[in-house]
Amino acid sequence: MGTSTDEGLEIFSSLKNDKVHHILSVISSTSPTINRIKVFSMSRFGLVNNTIRKKAWLFMHGIDAKVQNIPIAESIISAHKEYHQVLMDVNRSLKRFPPGMDEVVRMAMQDQLVNLIIRVLIHNKYLHYYQGFHDVCVTFLLVLSEDEAYCLISKLANSHFIDFMAQTMEPTTQLLYLIYAIVELENPAIIKTLQQVSVEPFFALPWVITWFGHVLGDLTRILRVYDFFLASDPIMPLYLSAAIVLYRHEEVASTEVDFAQLHHMLTSLPKCLPIELLISDAMDLFLRHPPDKIISSGAFPRQLNLRLTNIGSEILRLKKGPIGDSIDTRTRAIYKQSWSVVTYLNSTVSRYQQWSKKMVGVAILVALLSVLIRLIFTRLL
């Protein structure tokens, strides 16, 4: 019998392989549904690999995978007012490319990245470039072709990223305070400590505007987060940010109550953040403290004008009925379904060591888990 680590790797591999099988069967079916793909995206392991991501990301957002866009002349690209800023940001983004990537390939991809960003800005003249948007675009370009990435990013720029691409960052800074509102509902002591020395939620700005692409470092973890956000409400990056602050409550409590110390601690994300746990925590927070309920209850600071933001105004406009009874019932149902899958998978993985001690060998355990996972995805989806 192999070591515990070997067994763990084999079980994780089995879980992932079963998930790949189920995702592919849904995508290749005659009538695949967006909701089922979203559940796969949010639950443990996300979409698993880039072959699936390439299909699922486009499918979830209604993008034709065969689309071909008319290229824009290089002279028009280089004449754009944001061209030099974009070029500088892209040239500084070497760490965002996989280590070991051939230099010629990387340089060609950097050129594609500049073209991609400027194309989005040219065709969406009301949007404004911000430093960090290149972190978002490079993530999509590492999975999709330039044309596919352009179509998806153009769509997301008008929904998930539209507040970040306003003329100023004021709409975005308004949204960041929702992180504190969520945290305060769960652990008021954290907010009390931060407010003692006037630590505002601006430490989370690079988290939110890059979908954590600038701060996580590891591409596998970044792609997992993108799977989650692409299947979620545009406001979900704020809930994941709140989940991270809550997860680090002991660090907050043990850090000297000093602005510089606390701000530095919060901006320095640990490399070992448990992404799967935090994603499930973010979903749980969204279900228990939906944004419409937070705003209606007054937990969100009244002096801040959330109507300045596209996301905030949509929440306020769409809210119907009593507090917490949002019009977005279908979205909430997807989160509940995903939460069920997460609960099953997390409990299964965490118990594998206990089970393995009682089994004849890991092969038996893998076989049983394989059957269990098939049942989970078949019954819940």
| Tally of helical runs | 20
The CATH architecture of the largest domain can be given as Orthogonal Bundle
Would you report the number of β strands?
Answer: 0
CATH class of the largest domain: Mainly Alpha
Shape: globular
First and last CA, distance: 35 Å
What report would you give on this structure?
The protein is mostly helical. It folds into three domains: 4-66 and 331-380, no CATH class; 74-157, Helicase, Ruva Protein, domain 3, CATH 1.10.8.1310; 170-325, Cyclin A, domain 1 (Orthogonal Bundle). The chain is built from 20 helices and no strands. It has helices spanning 4-27, 34-42, 50-60, 74-79, 83-91, 103-123, 133-141, 146-157, 170-186, 188-196, 205-209, 219-230, 236-247, 249-254, 259-267, 275-288, 291-297, 310-318, 329-358, 362-380. Helix 1 (4-27) packs parallel to helix 20 (362-380) and helix 9 (170-186) crosses helix 10. The longest helix has 30 residues, at 329-358. 38% of the residues are buried. Residues 4-8 and 318-327 have low confidence and may be disordered.
